[in-house]
Specification:
12 helices
Amino acid sequence: MAETISITDVSPRDGLQNQTVHLSTEDKLELIARLVAAGVNSVEATSFVTPKAVPQMADAGELVPRISARFPQLRTSVLVPNLKGLERAHAAGAQEVAVVLSATETMNRKNINMGLDEATEVSAQTVLAAHDKGLRTRAYVAVAFECPFEGKTPLAEVVRLATRMHATGAGEIVIADTIGAASPQKVRALFAALRDVVPMDRLAVHLHDTRGLGAANAWAALEAGVRRFDASVGGIGGCPFAPGAAGNLATEDLVLMAETSGFTTGLSLDALLDAVDFAEQQLRRPLGGRSSAWLRRQRDKRLAAELQPA
């Protein structure tokens, strides 16, 4: 049997957080419904940050309970910046939370208004408090390859922070290429170091496609033993606090690469395209990964053939 990889679609949170068009709660639910129809069983739904900083996520308290009611089997994580965000997420019924710890001083100050040491302590405290509430946890190590403000990120610093978050008890350590600066060689080198301190089944990778290397970097992660991935349908997204953070690795690109390379994802490419089409309509701009045009042509050919008389 083909080996399975797990995909968390982050389009409802990381995808929408920097869009000029703000989707309504109903439209976010419809996007998630289309992801579920495509076979997605894990999403990052929203973030409990101040609406002044990220107004696109202002409806987090309303969205989470509606997701839980409509999709009770869906693994739904939410981003929380600190203990206050955790309290809000818990009150809304969240079952899984994620903290974001950047690997450089400046990025932490830009993202969460804390220095690296303080951000590390707050992230650890938040993970521990989430465990006390019975919640699952993820911990991002952001700008893991390069910082838009400080340049190349030392590998040893990423390993140190991942080790700390693992020791704190984070259920999943997500290595994030926040501005899409990684290369396959860098991905292999980092995960070769990480697997000595964090079990591979606890590691995940979050890739952006800024330089067109998203799928190549995902393949390098697969070769290194990673089986958990973040991706965003249509390639939507980018961090509003990181200059140069273009869209995420598109879910459809990751699925196509994995499925044609002997892995299984459980996701339908045609149904993912339906989600891309919906997001395009709502965000009023073209979307799609690097494979989307080809995938759409294949879909159209199949549909045309099905309409031919027997």
